[in-house]
Amino acid sequence: MKISFTFEPKPAVQQELQQQFPTHDFRFGKGAAPERDTAIWVTYGEDVKVAAIENLPELQWISVASAGVEKMPLSLLHSKEIIVTNARGIHKTPMTESIIGHILAIYRNLPAIYTLKNEQTWEKPRGSKELRGSSALIVGPGAIGEEVGRVLTAFGVEVTGCNRSGKTIEGFSNTVSLEKLDDQLGSADIVICLLPSTPETHRLFTIEKFQLMKNTALFMNFGRGNVVSEKVLVEALKAGEIGGAVLDVFEVEPLPESSELWGLPNVVISPHVSSHSDFYVERAMEIFSRNLSKWEQGEIDLENQVDLKLGY
Length: 312
Description:
Layout: E1 2-5, H1 11-20, E2 25-28, E3 38-43, H2 50-54, E4 61-64, H3 74-79, E5 83-85, H4 92-107, H5 110-118, E6 135-139, H6 143-154, E7 158-163, E8 174-177, H7 181-185, E9 190-193, H8 207-212, E10 218-221, H9 230-238, E11 244-247, E12 267-269, H10 280-296
Parallel strand pairs: 1-2, 1-3, 3-4, 4-5, 6-7, 6-9, 7-8, 9-10, 10-11, 11-12
């Protein structure tokens, strides 16, 4: 069976895969199109286009080494009954550390301290506050959100989750369904958005939702950029509807130099790096290896299988 990688893992990872699965024909080629007789395609997802799929008559499974699949032609893949899996869950450690790091930096006023150091000024900046006793609303608490909630709870934060079903999340103070999001926005000191990109979540955060929030609230978007219009977010920030924002994802990436977000003092811009880690590919390949072992046994109920109708 031919397995085509359209990115190149480190040589040691390639060798390990070939040793673990010696009966398969692995092909590794960064930027190269999969060969026509490819049965399994391992990719970051951005090169999965209609033309490529139509040129792969034997394709059965696409293993995406990232979490997002919204740019892929999901309806076509569904019609062709091609299985898609992703690397959901491998980001939870680096993204949790990034999110918690930003929160602590803002609450303990670290940016001001760093600025004073660079200016060689001995001055005690005002504005530091404790995280303990505050409240956080995590919108879209999957594997990443659950870990963020666990760590925030350890800091003494009251955590509420908001997911599609309203299903209870262990360790959270409360969990509500997405349709009850508006009822929770007014009580949160920190709103953390980790939603995927789907028709249901597209521009979910309207100006009315920001108006429901505390004018001191910190809005954090670490899910997908299109859950909020940049124009709406700028309007909410300039009007003082919320206290500030930390953004790792944007409607347009890279963020254009002309974007007003760059000039707003109450905005932290992170260039979509919160999930970066030395262990990224290693963790993604662990999921792929477990799934390939299942595949060899004839199992098609694979780990992290994407619901192509829902888009995640």
